[in-house]
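pinned: reference chain
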Amino acid sequence: MLAAMLQSLARILVHTVFSTKERRPWLREAALRQERHSYHGGILKHLNCQPIIVGGVEDPVHLLAGLARACTAAERVKEVKRGSSLWAKCGIDGRERTNDATLSGLMP
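pinned: its structure tokens
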């Protein structure tokens, strides 16, 4: 009976910082910065890594999120960087970015 009641709980938080390529000031525009931060949050949710804070003032981008049981820290960084690169390369209009077929594997 005692064995059925025992469980172990852990919550691992990971703070990740991304800089832009060549440290260029890409995210000066507030609307663009907000859109990108929202997109990063969506990728983290899709990976079951609960986003706590996604943001930053201009560059770099800071992500504080939980680490899912089935996701390694390296896998999480790889997927966020991959999605971020695709987002940056897919058109100027935000609707084009989030509706682009190449991103369908990242977002539910």
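why pinned: Strands lie at 13-18, 51-55, 61-66. Confidence is low (pLDDT under 50) at residues 92-108.
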